[in-house]
Design brief:
It comes from Roseicyclus elongatus DSM 19469. Residues 6-233 form the ABC transporter domain. One of its GO terms (molecular function) is ATP binding. The model has no long low-confidence stretch (mean pLDDT 94). It contains 6 helices and 10 strands; from the N terminus they run βββαββαβαααβαβββ. The protein has one domain: Rossmann fold. It is globular. It is an alpha/beta fold and 235 residues long. 40% of the residues are buried. The structure holds adenosine-5'-triphosphate (ATP). Adenosine-5'-triphosphate binds at residues 15, 17, 22, 24, 42, 44-50, 199. Residues 15, 17, 22, 24, 42, 44-50, 199 line the site of adenosine-5'-triphosphate (ATP).
Length: 235
C-alpha cells in the first residue's frame, strides 16, 4: 500500500460575504499518496484552489479534518502552519510571483537562505533547464522561463509536496509542455508528491490519478494505467 501524504475527512469551506454564503467545498474526503502526481480537474469555481490552499496550510477548512502524514493541520495556529509550509510544502501559482529586481538565482536564494537542507540555487535552476539563465532578471525571461524559476524556487528546499495551481494557465501550449515536463521530472527524480490543478482536461493524461471536482465535491477519481509524457499529449 502506498503511504498516505494527505488525508481529508468531510472538509467544507463556506465563505460568508455578508449577503450570500458560498459553499466552496461541500464535504471532501480525499487521500493523496506519497510520490504520486495527481491532477485536480474541474470547472471554474468548483473548489479546486480552495482545497489546495487548505492542504498547503494557507487556509483553514470550515468543518472537517485535514492531516499531512501524522500532523493534524485542522487546528494549527498561524505560527505552526507557517512552519509546516516552510518545512514541507512548495507552491507554484499561475502567475509566477517572482521579485522583479532580483535575478533568477537571487529569487531562488530567497528560499534557500532560510531552508534547513536546501539544494544550491544554481542546482535547482539547472534542474528546470535554466542553468544558463542564472543572472537574468524576470523581465528578461519568457513566461515559461519565469514559471520554471518559480518551480526552482519551490523545489530548492526539497519539499515533500509540491502544490501547483494552474501552473500553465498563463502559458501557450509549447511553453506549457516544458513546464509540465519539469514537474514530471521532479516527481520522477525526487518522488515529490505533486498536485496539479488545471482546467485543461488533456493534462490529466500525465497523472497517476485524476481527481475530478464539481460543485465543491469530488465527482470521481480515475487511475491512469498508462500515462503520457507532456510532450506526447495532443493539445
Ligand atoms: N475569498 C473568497 N471569498 C468569497 N468567495 C470565495 C473566496 N475564494 C473563493 N470563493 C468562491 O468559492 C468558490 C470556489 O472557488 P475556487 O477558487 O476554490 O474554485 P476553483 O475550482 O479553483 O476555480 P478556478 O479554476 O476558477 O480557480 C467560488 O464560487 C469562488 O467564487
Amino acid at each position: 500500500m502506498p503511504e498516505t501524504v494527505f488525508r481529508t475527512e468531510g472538509i467544507t469551506k463556506t465563505y460568508d460575504t455578508g449577503e450570500v454564503k458560498v459553499h466552496a467545498l461541500a464535504g471532501v474526503d480525499l487521500e493523496l499518496f506519497a510520490g504520486e502526481l495527481a491532477v485536480l480537474l474541474g470547472p471554474s469555481g468548483s473548489g479546486k484552489s480552495t482545497l489546495l490552499n487548505i492542504l498547503g496550510g494557507l487556509d483553514h477548512a470550515s468543518e472537517g479534518r485535514v492531516w499531512f502524514r501524522d500532523l493534524d493541520l485542522t487546528d494549527l495556529g498561524d505560527r505552526a502552519l507557517t512552519r509546516y509550509r516552510r518545512d514541507h510544502v512548495g507552491f507554484v501559482f499561475q502567475f509566477y510571483n517572482l521579485v522583479p529586481s532580483l535575478s533568477a538565482r537571487e529569487n531562488v536564494q530567497l528560499v534557500t537562505d532560510v531552508a534547513p537542507d536546501p539544494m544550491r540555487a544554481a542546482e535547482a535552476l539547472e534542474l528546470v533547464g535554466l542553468g544558463h539563465r542564472l543572472d537574468h532578471f524576470p523581465a528578461e525571461m519568457s513566461g515559461g522561463e519565469q514559471q520554471r524559476v518559480a518551480i526552482a524556487r519551490a523545489i530548492a528546499k526539497r519539499p515533500e509536496v509540491l502544490l501547483c495551481d494552474e501552473p500553465t494557465g498563463a502559458l501557450d501550449s509549447k511553453t506549457g509542455v516544458q513546464v509540465l515536463e519539469v514537474l514530471k521530472t521532479i516527481n520522477d527524480q525526487f518522488g515529490t508528491s505533486t498536485v496539479v490543478i488545471t482546467h485543461n482536461a488533456m493534462i490529466r493524461k500525465m497523472a497517476h490519478r485524476v481527481i475530478r471536482f464539481a460543485d465543491g465535491k469530488i465527482a470521481g477519481v480515475e487511475v491512469n494505467d498508462t500515462r503520457l509524457a507532456p510532450h506526447e499529449i495532443d493539445w
